[in-house]
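Example 4.3 (complexes with small molecules)
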Amino acid sequence: MAGGRYDLVVIGAGPGGYVAAIRAAQLGMKVACIEKEEALGGTCLRIGCIPSKALLDSSELYRQAREHFAVHGIRVGEVALDLPTMMRRKDKVVKGLTGGVAALFKKNKITHVAGTARIAAPGKVVVSGREERTLEGERILIATGSEPTPLRGLDFDGRHVVSSDQALSFDEVPARLLVVGAGAIGLELGSVWARLGCEVRIVEFLDRITPTMDRELSDLLAKTLKRQGITIQLSSSAKAATILDGKVEVTVESGGKTTTEIADKVLVAVGRRPYTAGLGLEEVGVAADERGRITVNDRFETSVAGIYAVGDAIPGPMLAHKASEEGVACVERIAGQAGHVNYDAIPSVVYTWPEFAGVGKTDQDCEQAGIEVRTGTFPFLANGRARAMEEKDGLVKVIADARTDRILGVHILGPRASDMIAEAAVAIEFAASAEDLARTPHAHPTLPEAVKEAALAVSGGAIHR
Ligand code: FAD
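Answer. The structure with flavin-adenine dinucleotide bound is encoded below.
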C-alpha cells in the first residue's frame, strides 16, 4: 500500500502524539499517526498511568475493606483477594480506553498507520511493519516517549528483576518485593503490592523520597507509608542482583556497609529515559542533549526545520498531561495560533494513600531563587469532611510571594490530593493571589476547604485552626 502525503505525520500515539494528532485534525490538517504497538494510547494508557491507577484503586479498596470498614461500623466477614479478577478488571479498563483513542482517530479522520517509524529525511518517514511504506509529511512530530532506565548490576530479566511494565501484571502477590527508587512509580507500585499483602522494602539512593516534590510533605508521606508497613531505606544504593533458587539476592550499600536483601522480585524504578531507538535522528541531524532528550525551541521544533518533538522524548517532567499540553501547543503554533505551555502550572501527583500532589514552586525552589515567601498550612485533621471520612493524615501548604501575595506553589498531602490540586493549577494559571483563593467560596463540608484555609493561613487568617 502506498504511504500518502500528509500535513502532519505524528510518530507515537501516546498522550503527546495522539492528542497532537486530534488537535491538528481539528485545525484542518491532514494527519497520519504511526504507532508500533497494537493498542493506541502509549505508555500512559497501556503500561503507565491507567493500569497503575486501576490497581491502586482496587488495592486501596481491598485495604479499606480489611482495615477501615470496621471503624465505619461495617462488618464484611473475611475479605479475600482475587488477583486474577483484579488484573482482568485493570486490563478491561486499559482496553476500553485504548479502544477509545482508536474511535477518536476515526471520528477526526486521522490515518492510523501500524508499524515502526524511521525518519529517512525531513518530510519523509519510512514505516516498517507487515509491509514497508513511506509517508510524506510537510511536518513530522516525534512523540516516541520513554522507557525504563536500567540500573547497572541489576539488569532487567522481566521475571525476577523487573520494570514497571511487569510489576503491573504479576500473576501472584510476591512474598517480598524490593523496590529500587522512591519516586512516583516505585512508591505507587510498592503501595499496590504492600496493600495486597506483600512485604515491601524500598531502597533509595537519596536521603529523601519523591525528590522533586515539597520536602516537608515528602518526609510526612514517608512516615505515613512506614506506618502502612512499607520499609523505606534512604541513602542506600542497590549494587548487584544474583538469582538463587528462584529468589533475588541484592547487595545494598549504605553508609559504608554492605548488606544483602533477599526478595522474590526486584522492581527497578530509578527513572525513565527518552526512547528514540531506530528513529534515525542522528542521520537526519536532530540534536539531543547528553541524556538523549531531543532539544527543541519554544515552538517545539528540533534542530531540523519541519521536525518537531514533544512529551517524554524532550526535557521536562515525564508526565502524560505535560506531553498532551505540549502536543496541543506545538500543532497550534504550526497552525499559526498562539499555543503555549505554562510549565509553572503543571501539577505532579504521587498516587499513594494519602495522595501527594504539588504545583508550582516548592520552599526549596523559592529559597534557591532568593524569593521571599509567606506560607500557609492547614492540616486535614481540622477539616470536617476529612474527619467524616476518617482521613486525618496530611496537610495543604500554600506558598505565596511575600511582596505581591501571588501564589507560587501549592502542595497537598491528603485524601484525593490528585483532584484537589486542580484548583491550585487554575489559581497559578490565572496568577491568583493567596487572598483570591482564600476569598473564593468553597462548598462545605469538602476536602478543598483545606486549600482555602491554607490560603487564609498565608496572612494568618485561617478560621478553623
Ligand atoms: P508515550 O506515552 O511513551 O508514547 C510513545 C508512543 O510512541 C508509544 O506508544 C510507543 O510505542 C510509540 N513509539 C515509539 N517509537 C516509535 C516508532 N519508532 N514508531 C512508531 N511508534 C513508536 N504520568 C502522569 O501524568 N500521571 C501518572 O499517573 C503516570 N503514571 C505512570 C505510571 C507508570 C507505571 C509509568 C511507566 C508512567 C506513568 N506516567 C504518568 C508517565 C506517562 O506515562 C508518560 O509521561 C507519558 O506516557 C508520556 O507520553 P508520550 O506521548 O511522550 O510518550
